[in-house]
Design goal:
Layout lengths: L2 H30 L1 H12 L6 E4 L2 H4 L4 H8 L3 E3 L7 H14 L5 E5 L24 H8 L5 H6 L10 H11 L11 E2 L2 E2 L24 H14 L3 E6 L6 H4 L4 H14 L4 E3 L20 H19 L2
């Protein structure tokens, strides 16, 4: 066997080995990500009909339970909240959802401090790897430097994007663990957030501005404009936070909130400031400064449902 042939054999065997390792890791990662997989299958591949969609970051994901929205409004809802999501990811999720699903009656769109800050692109882009054949997903990842054409041709190279968090989750899947913690549950895209409560003194990260990234406001406007074009009612909601701690820790919070209010005024849509609710003074309802715990999600979801019901009747 000549030298070139040996090199080709080594490359072929190495490629097959790497692909085998990838398949093993990916299968266990999907076993761990049972919640992500179920909800992304619905969002990207599903065709179910929902009247109310709840779109936002982890504050939406773990803070709004569709069970209470459904039972109080009499309409069917689904939680599209994305862990660590920003407005660029909201736009992708919204566009891909509308590819195959019937149009809803209402979109409840999160409008919080850091959702216009696009510096990090995606919090967890690897969760979209099983869906790269979808053009909206692949183009959205390409825009932030992720090489989807390469990943589709040589799937094992996706492992080069695995960070310690993703690798550890694959190992947890190998040990038959899942992302749904003991005592928690999932329901129509929602994932409950445990029983932890706030204890003072509350630790917060160093103060930091919430950047309004170039193009981020246009992405937000794009979501709203598509809703209005398709006769989908849309409301903006600043979700609860504990005792305004996040705003007090964000020097330019007033600037961001003014931009969000300006957008709502431009499109004549409601902007609800639910950081001003009485429940925001109750440490027993929060897992941390920005996220409701399991009981907090019950209290808030019931309240939000009454708001949605009232807006739908107008």
């Amino acid at each position: 066997m000549n030298y070139l042939a040996r090199i080709l054999v080594v490359l072929f065997v190495s490629g097959i080995s790497c692909q085998g390792i990838f398949w093993l890791l990916d299968s266990h990662l999907q076993q761990y990500n049972v919640h992500k997989k179920e909800r992304l299958d619905e969002i990207i591949l599903g065709h179910s009909s929902f009247d109310i969609l709840l779109l936002g970051s982890s504050k939406t994901h773990t803070g709004i339970n569709p069970y209470y929205i459904d039972s109080i409004t009499g309409h069917s809802s689904y939680n599209l909240g994305i862990e660590g999501g920003r407005v660029n990811e909201f736009k992708i999720i919204w566009d891909v959802y509308l590819q195959h699903h019937p149009k809803p009656k209402m979109l409840v769109l999160s409008a919080n401090l850091f959702e216009l800050d696009l510096r990090r692109g995606f919090f967890n882009h690897t969760q979209y790897f099983p869906y790269l054949e979808n053009s909206i997903i692949s183009q959205g990842l390409d825009a932030y430097g992720h090489r989807t054409d390469v990943y589709k041709t040589l799937p094992f190279l996706r492992m080069s994007d695995y960070d310690d968090y993703t690798r550890n989750n694959a190992l947890k899947g190998m040990m038959h663990q899942t992302e749904i913690q003991a005592g928690d549950f999932q329901y129509k895209g929602f994932l409950s957030n445990g029983e932890n409560t706030i204890r003072e003194p509350l630790a917060l990260p160093p103060k930091e501005d919430a950047r309004i990234s170039v193009g981020s406001v246009d992405l937000l406007k794009g979501i709203i404009e598509r809703c209005q074009k398709d006769s989908i009612q849309v409301i903006l909601v600043y979700l609860p936070e504990y005792d305004h701690r996040l705003q007090n820790n964000t020097p330019n919070a007033a600037e961001v909130l003014a931009v969000l209010k300006e957008v709502s005024d431009k499109y004549k849509i409601k902007f609800f400031r639910h950081d001003q609710l009485e429940l925001c003074k109750r440490p027993d309802l929060f897992a941390n400064a920005g996220h409701l715990n399991r009981e907090g999600s019950v209290v808030y979801s019931k309240y939000l449902a009454t708001v949605i019901k009232s807006e739908l009747s107008k």
